[in-house]
Amino acid sequence: MTKRIAIVGAGALGGYIGGNLAHQGRDVTLLDPWPEHVEAIRARGLELDGVTPEEKFTVKNLKALHLTEAQSLARSPVDIAFVAVKSYDTAWATALIKPYLSAQGFVVSLQNCLNEETIAGIVGWGRTVGVVASLISVDLYEPGRVRRTVAKGGDKHTVFRIGEPHGRISARVEELVEWFRGIDSAKATSNLWGERWSKLVQNSMGNPVTAATGLTSGDCMRDETIRRFAIKIAGEGVRVGQALGFELEKIRGVEPEKMARAGEGDREALAQTEAQLMPKGDNPRASIQRPSMAQDILKGRRTEIDAMNGYIARKGAETGVKADANAKIAGIVTRIERGELKPSPSLLQ
Known about the structure:
alpha/beta, Rossmann fold, N-(1-d-carboxylethyl)-l-norvaline Dehydrogenase, domain 2, 2 domains, 8-stranded mixed β-sheet
């Protein structure tokens, strides 16, 4: 039987994944709270773009619903619901789709941060799966238009890591892996929590510094002061994750222990880490590439800073691990979000 798929939150990543799955011929329905976005998809389809000509196409006749129309799903219950909203919207988005899950239906967290526990609290652990999207950057820059601003991972980097909270490789995870391989590189993981924390650290060093400075990701990494502050943020995140007992994965190609030592001032580790993080100059969209938090600041929206660096700082306090850099950047971005400060590189000097 054809699996019925719902994407709850068809923003940048949700729209990108939903559009690609529909392009593969799968039965996809998008639900989104932005009325203009839904109407644009209905009128002209969802336009997807990437860094190569082959990644540019329009998905026509894609089913798109306003949140107020979710009850129409009762006629055709959902087998797989991807929750792709911001972390702070996880609870209501999961509660919204729960009544429309089929008997065997389950929910997949397609998000930043650690939200599986929130989802499981609503639908149960047996109906909860996680997808970690690593080193991918997408932008919903106009209603009905999503573009990817970094190259595909291919055989150099596995972008999608899909797993069960209990760590066993299940048939449904293997099925999702095959689907996602039609979009980019993907694998099943028995280490969902380690992957999640590693992605959290990766986000924590990139998202807030671009949001705070107003610079692109590449320009942040070219600035020595900003780059080393980002490494310190990541190093703290590694130490907190280790204290919590997670088995961490590489962070932007750097071994976690090396990242931590670099953040603590180990010269050799710092030199090797900086060499890995420096932009390679092969991204044709580097001039517009910004992670989600920087996009949120530009659009005047609430960020995920509390669920990223704020969360690391709180967990650090619980485990007795200092995370001062995370607390500092969380405070800066929160003030920018409130309109008390304007993004500027001087904020991180």
